[in-house]
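Duplicate of #3305? Posting structure anyway:
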């Protein structure tokens, strides 16, 4: 966190016009203020090189400041028109995908140079893998109802019935989705407007954040790319439920989506906190099936509304293929040995490795019990043998099982955004495996761990980048480490 130390360039809350010159990891534009006192950097999230923007300084330090974007005064020459509604979830959609890839690659590799202390990272770089679909790639979306909307013309809030996404940084204000955002299912998003009109006509109110009251709260949709089906979850409060006809709502959804509609879950969520999680509450299946089936690299996975599943399944196939390539690169280190899949989620990676190797024993560990249950069911469904799954914290699991030390040749790691706790990483190092294949959705924590691994004798051999989320700042990495 930047301190509040003074600098001779900007003050907190100051509003400035800034030219964005570069792109920093994580989606921040870099502007520079130059005067007789020198150069000063200002980071402005969600901006692009070439834009002229109006921004407000939020925090300052001696060396740099962080600002928030007020509006774009002049677009970048790189920007193109797209036929989609702009939403906070896709800040770079106007930038051609090749330029997005270039920014992601350069900013990620520079992290490994700076934080990971890997000066020759360019030599170790293997491949940049784009998403097979640049648009309509997501398999899940959460839309919120709100009684307060945004008037895009007058740039102010208004009391209207809305269904769409929250305005960036304004938790209580919704912004109507009038058409396809380009990220999720086109037919679904082109109909969000009609779903909103239907709900408004019931006369029941949408959620009013500040007043903490209302009936309609969220509409969540999960899609299977394999079957093209949609699973819905309507989240409401119980207040006014007796005036809402669920059977008419089901008929309405069927009239639009027909056989594409796999099922409808109704969740009653009466929580009044500002930041309630959309789908908490009591759920009941009111139509069809509560699960959909997805396929990844020929294996089938049954997914419920809540279980974690890769959001871009087509890109996940590419990611998993790369992981499996690295794991199986030297097959002798996998066949007839134990492979650990740590932070395994629903066990997808371990199952794919098991399916492609001879007699390998895979041990999967994840802290979420329901994910481990899904992992076991999916392994059975796919008839894959040699897998064992444990619901446990990785660190505690390794302390409780010292028998694995020196018995494992390959470890697969896929931690959550926060990365691996240093104590847990030490326990993983103590397993003394020949190599590790480390997948990360947050290369900043992976770069930090790269330095720790190197000190423990593991050298980075190769790294690939996978663009799982086009039009956002996110990037996934797959890195191969080997014992020196
Ligand atoms: C990025 S996901 C891994 C997904 C999985 N490899 C897949 O492809 O489906 C990270 C996983 O780490 C798990 N996790 C987070 N902290 C953990 C911990 N301390 N011990 C074990 N698992 C943990 C989460 O439950 C989550 O499933």
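Output from current build:
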């Amino acid at each position: 966190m930047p301190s509040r130390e003074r600098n001779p360039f900007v003050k907190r809350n100051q509003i400035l016009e800034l030219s964005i010159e570069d792109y920093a990891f994580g989606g921040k534009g870099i502007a520079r203020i130059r005067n007789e006192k020198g150069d000063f950097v200002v980071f402005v999230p969600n901006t692009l090189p070439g834009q002229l923007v109006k921004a407000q300084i939020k925090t300052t330090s001696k060396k740099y400041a962080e600002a928030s974007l007020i509006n774009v005064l002049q677009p970048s020459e790189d920007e193109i028109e797209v036929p989609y509604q702009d939403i906070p979830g896709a800040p770079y959609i106007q930038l051609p995908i090749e330029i997005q890839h270039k920014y992601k690659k350069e900013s990620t590799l520079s992290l490994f140079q700076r934080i990971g202390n890997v000066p020759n990272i360019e030599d170790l770089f293997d491949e940049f893998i784009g998403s097979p679909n640049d648009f309509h790639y997501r398999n899940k979306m959460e839309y919120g109802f709100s009684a307060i909307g945004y008037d895009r013309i007058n740039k102010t809030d208004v009391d209207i019935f809305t269904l769409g996404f929250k305005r960036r940084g304004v938790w209580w204000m919704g912004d109507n989705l009038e058409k396809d955002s380009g990220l999720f299912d086109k037919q679904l998003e082109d109909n969000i407007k009609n779903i909103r009109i239907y709900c408004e006509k019931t006369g029941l109110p949408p959620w009013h954040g500040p007043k903490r009251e209302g009936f309609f709260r969220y509409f969540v949709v999960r899609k299977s790319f394999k079957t093209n089906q949609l699973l819905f979850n309507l989240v409401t409060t119980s207040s006014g439920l007796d005036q809402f006809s669920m059977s008419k709502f089901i008929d309405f959804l069927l009239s639009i989506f027909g056989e594409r509609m796999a099922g409808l879950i109704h969740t009653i969520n009466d929580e009044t906190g500002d930041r309630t999680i959309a789908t908490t509450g009591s759920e009941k299946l009111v139509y069809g099936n509560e699960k959909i089936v997805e396929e990844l690299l020929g294996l089938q996975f049954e997914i419920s509304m809540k279980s974690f599943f890769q959001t871009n399944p087509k890109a996940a196939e590419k990611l998993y293929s790369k992981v499996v390539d690295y794991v199986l690169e030297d097959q002798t280190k996998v066949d007839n040995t134990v492979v650990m899949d740590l932070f395994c989620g629903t066990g997808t990676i371990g199952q794919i490795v098991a399916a492609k190797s001879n007699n390998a024993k895979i041990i999967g560990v994840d802290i979420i019990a329901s994910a481990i249950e899904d992992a076991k069911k999916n392994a059975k469904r796919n008839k894959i043998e040699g897998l064992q799954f444990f619901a446990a914290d990785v660190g505690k699991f390794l302390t409780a099982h010292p028998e694995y030390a020196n018995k494992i040749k390959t470890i697969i790691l896929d931690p959550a955004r926060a990365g691996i706790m240093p104590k847990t990483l030490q326990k993983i190092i103590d397993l003394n495996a020949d190599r590790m294949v480390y997948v990360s959705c947050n290369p900043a924590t992976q770069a930090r761990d790269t330095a720790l691994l190197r000190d423990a004798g593991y050298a980075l051999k190769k790294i690939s980048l996978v663009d799982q989320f086009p039009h956002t700042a996110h990037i996934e990495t797959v890195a191969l480490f080997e014992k020196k």
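Confirmed duplicate; merging threads. Residues 308, 310, 343-346, 348-349, 365-368, 371, 393-394, 414-416, 441 surround S-adenosylmethionine (CB under 6 Å). The chain has a mean pLDDT of 93.
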